[in-house]
Amino acid sequence: MSRLTADIAHDASKVMLDDISPEARRVARHCILDLLAVTLAAWKDPLAQILLDEAKDEQSRPVSTILGSGYRTSASQAALVNGTTSHALDYDDASLALNGHPSAAILPAVLAEAEAIGASGEAVLTAFVAGYEAACRIGSLMHPDHYRRGFHNTATIGALGAAVACSRLLGSDAATVRRALGIAGTLAAGLKHSFGTMSKPLHAGWANHTGLMAARYARRGLTSREDMLDAEYGFARTMSRDHHLNRAYARPNGGWHILNNLFKYHACCYNIHAPIDAAREIMARSGIVADAIKQVTIQVSPVLDTVCNVQDPQSGLEIKFSLRHAVAMALCGVDTADIASFSDANALRPDLVAMRDRVAVEWIEAEDTFARVIIENDDGARLEATADSSIPSANLDQQEAKLTTKFAALVNPILGVGRANQVIATISEFESLEDVNVLLLGCVSD
Amino acid sequence: MSRLTADIAHDASKVMLDDISPEARRVARHCILDLLAVTLAAWKDPLAQILLDEAKDEQSRPVSTILGSGYRTSASQAALVNGTTSHALDYDDASLALNGHPSAAILPAVLAEAEAIGASGEAVLTAFVAGYEAACRIGSLMHPDHYRRGFHNTATIGALGAAVACSRLLGSDAATVRRALGIAGTLAAGLKHSFGTMSKPLHAGWANHTGLMAARYARRGLTSREDMLDAEYGFARTMSRDHHLNRAYARPNGGWHILNNLFKYHACCYNIHAPIDAAREIMARSGIVADAIKQVTIQVSPVLDTVCNVQDPQSGLEIKFSLRHAVAMALCGVDTADIASFSDANALRPDLVAMRDRVAVEWIEAEDTFARVIIENDDGARLEATADSSIPSANLDQQEAKLTTKFAALVNPILGVGRANQVIATISEFESLEDVNVLLLGCVSD
């Protein structure tokens, strides 16, 4: 019998802010910045409004803020609504170790509980990193079979990550975290079959909700199995044939999974990020103009054919999953970081369609996060660049600058420039916040 | 592609009280009577108190009653707390088609939502039967592989049953019920690994909570897959290799699954019910006294060896899973319907231990709900009886009398005789209730 449940619980209950490397803490702040951006940008989304209406119907004690609306409710409701909203645009960060979206699954629960109990920035950052690392270890344990057989890691494993994070925030001891994992493990759910519907972002909200409740129940003495990740009929083995203990114990690059967190800078499918980056690099390097482009070739893994290869997209949603169109937009100077760029109008804009017709997709043997783009000019010149979206940023200054730009683009229209800048400033000194309420109460639309 | 999701949704959205046979309606009333009994009897259980404390912490709008305590909260909270409490004693009814506990998984959600919206008895009964039938059809579809691979049907399929029932109560059309099944299917969870901990009854509460929310979300327009039971990566196929469409469409005995509902009359493992019934039959028929018994043989399936064959139990919990001791109690005239009989004191009572020492268990080839008991007397006489706990009562008058006795034993100490009798009377005319509030507001401990 392995003892992964016990070890994860032990690590989570013991970790202190000082144990976490400065780089890992900085990336954790980036996760907070990015999560608030994508959540605030979506707060008027129809899905977010459905959940907000439900929360309003319950009229629970107002201790945690629903981002954007500013409506205050119970921590469990805020975790559910904010968690769902954070994934509504599918513009939130990702982890290859989890094979899903750790911040969306964990952070809203931590922030909601922190606001309810008046926790400090230090406590939140520590709890979030504890949950993030746990989720990535469990993801590594169960990848790829869990996902392959139909489960959505963000939803299922995300609930366990949220349970660990909220347990750390509440100061639970190792035995209590084990039980929280037991409760979250037996309540965790979410199927990939729901992709393409509102139920996919709902998964993230439900993971936050389930994890937060599991942490609370365990604190109150509710019993569950304490070997949920190890037992023959526990969560890990019932829902996955994979059980890679060595991977769950392996030391990630830099010592922290969170250092390998991947942010989205284009408001479309993650598999289109590398082609866009390669295309933009050529444009920036060569200084050519769109009109001079004769022919474009995108070389990527054939895996992408079923993911994001809509050949002749007709809508804003479809161009989010069209290699040809998204790259055409990048070549024509359209801002692919702006969610408004992925509009029905841009799907039909004549110059973009004309450019798209010059783009061909070619399958090569490669990881599905790799792309090579080749541009042939009117004058016969051949320009080429590659990109790999599986590689986290090595330059955290650059990452912060890009995320700050993304934040401004998404949040300035919601909060106004002044308060948006205030949020950025608050997050930059997150560990020194005495009470995170100051941050969350500021995340309310005009 | 099958269309079971669509057919279940269609049937549920169309069924009216008049479509349901009088016998099926009567059994549905029995389910309500029995559910209230086992829920009220457990309301001071530590698990129930944990969930009550959480509900109190949320201070939600008081529209639905937590049984026993009388605390009023949101429908989703009441469904969660009452659903969990109803399964806390493991004394609630069961269905072999679902392979689980349909009333505990479905009825608390229906009652909580009904109280919140002021629904009639007719609406509640119709909704409950719609959900019950749906859950049994889905159980038939996925049995036995779903359970065998580690999932707890009460929890997983129960959530879909609750979603269907609440959808019917809210008057959802077929398309909306399909989406409610899609949402519940992707949020449904629960592992058998949790058996023996408080997380097992929590499963029932979570199923009610999830199903109720799925029905509400679907009403508000939240989208999900509409082929959750049919698609290759939907709920049914991801979580079970079995996919017995013929069974899901088969007409159950009497036309309604609910007619085959099985009630517990002994406060112990269901697999001990048949041995107790057989032993009691011999005692009643022959009129012998315990002292005259020389030797007892219980013949049952060897499957029970790992379920309820504690040889020398030392505690109240252990005698709930001891064939020898429970039958010894029945032979000595102890009331096995009384939850107080399964006490630590009775585990050690000398006359019971002495009788237990005269009882032997013998394995025979049989269904695990069948038992033969053979008693040899001091005078050499040999008495024998058989019982099968898989057979629902053919005599509904007798069933009602037994359930009324059980109700009185469990509920009189909680509500007092006067109000307990009032609840029984109210349920006997359930279909004519204009508003179920009158029933639920009366289920409050002195």
From TrEMBL, chains A, B:
Residues 266-423 form the MmgE/PrpD C-terminal domain. Residues 7-246 form the MmgE/PrpD N-terminal domain. GO terms for molecular function: lyase activity. It comes from the Bacteria. It holds the Pfam family MmgE_PrpD_N. SUPFAM superfamilies: 2-methylcitrate dehydratase PrpD (SSF103378). Belongs to the PrpD family. This is MmgE/PrpD family protein. It comes from Sphingomonas populi.
